[in-house]
Amino acid sequence: MWRIVRGGARCRRWTSLVLATFICSSVIIYSYIYFHAIRSIKIAKKLKYVQRNQTAAQPIAQPWKERVQKLTKNQRMPLLTLFTTWIDNDDKKLVHNITIVNWLSLRPFVLPIIFTNETALAKTCELAGWKTMPLRVVAADGVPVLKYMYIDAMKRYESSLYAFANGDILFTDTLIDTLAEILQDNSTSHKHTLIIGRRTNTNNITMKEVSSWKELTVVAKKRGKLFRSDAEDYFVTSASYPWHEIPDFVVGRRAYDNWLVLNARKQKHRVIDASLTILAVHQTTDDGNYESKKKETREYNHLLLLSLYESIKYNLGDCICAEYETSLRSGRIWITPRRLRKFCRLR
C-alpha cells in the first residue's frame, strides 16, 4: 500500500513538472512568435517607406570614381587635358617612364599628352596610351614655347580644364578631387581661373612606388619635402584662359611661373593655390632640385620680360600670394579667400 501511494505521488510530481515545462515552453515559443511578428511588421513598413522614397535615398558612401563623376556630371569630359614635354634622354628614362605610368592612372578624368618632334618618343608614348602632338613653336635653342602648347591642346581636345606640368611631376587622385570641387564652386564671378601649387621633392622614386596613389602618398610623406613657395611646376587654367596674350615664355627656365601668377592677379583672374589639397610629387634625382640653373639659356624668360617691362616684382607671383586657397575640412575640399600678407599686396 505504501509503495502504491508513494508511486502515485511521484507520478503526480512528474506530471506537474512536465506540465510546467510545457507551459513555460509554450510561453517562450508564443512570445518569440509574437515579437518576431511585430518585428517583421516593422521591417515591412520600413521597406514600404524606402520603396516610396527610393528616388530620394542617397548612399552613405560611394566609390571614388562614381563620386567624382557625380561632381562633374555637368562638366566637359575629360575633366583635364594635362600635357608636358621632354627630350628623350637615357639619364631620365626611368623618371619619364614613371610619369607615363602615373599620368595614365588618372584616366578617364585626365587626358595625358606629350608635345614632341621626336618620332621614337612619340611612338613610345602612343603605345603606352598617351596622345602626342608636335611642337609648333620653339625658342632659346629649341626649347618649347609654353603658350602654343596650351593653344594647340585647346584646339585639338575638348575638356573643362587645361594644364601644363613639368615632365617629372607625379599626381594622385587629389588632383581630380580638387579640380572637381573647384569646378563646382560658383561663389565668385571670375571669368578666368589659374590653379597653381607647390611640389613635394622626393628622392629616387621607383616604379613600384607609383603602383598606386596610396603608395605614392606614403612615399611622399616619408621621404618628401615641400619645396619653396615661389616655385610652381603646374598651371591649370580654364578653357577660356587668354593664352594668346601671354609672352613667348619657354618651359624649364626661371621667371615665367611667377610672372604668370602676378599677371593673373593683375588681370583680376581667380588665382587658387591648391598646395594643401593637390599632392604634386617631384621626382628628385642626382641632378637635384635646381636643374634649370645649369642651362645655358636659364635667363631667357627673365631677359624677355625685361625687354617688355621696366621692372618685374616676382615676389608678387608667389604661391602664397594667390587670393584663394584650397583646404581639406571634414572630408571635403573647400575654396576660400585668403588673407594676404603685406608683401603680397598689389600696388
Give a verbal description of the structure.
The protein has 347 residues and is α/β, with parallel strands linked by helices. The chain contains nine helices and 15 strands. It has a nine-stranded mixed β-sheet with strand order 3-2-1-6-11-8-12-14-15, with helices on both faces. Strands 7-13-9-10 form a four-stranded mixed β-sheet. The chain is elongated and about 120 Å long. The model is unreliable at 1-6 and 39-62 (pLDDT under 50).
Q: List the strand order in the largest sheet.
A: 3-2-1-6-11-8-12-14-15
Order of helix and strand elements from N to C terminus: HHEHEHEEEHEEHEEHEEHEEHEE
Would you count the extended β strands for me?
15
CATH architecture of the largest domain: Alpha-Beta Complex
Q: How many structural domains in the coordinates?
A: 2
* Rounded average pLDDT: 84
Relative strand content: 15-25%
Radius of gyration: 32 Å
- The best one-word shape is elongated
Q: Assign the CATH topology of the largest domain.
A: Spore Coat Polysaccharide Biosynthesis Protein SpsA, Chain A
Given this structure, which CATH class of the largest domain is correct?
A: Alpha Beta
* Total of helices: 9
Largest sheet at a glance?
Answer: 9 strands, mixed
Q: Are there runs of 5+ residues with pLDDT below 50, and where? A: 1-6, 39-62
Based on helices, strands and strand pairing, what is the structural class? alpha/beta
Helix content: 25-40%
N→C terminal distance: 124 Å
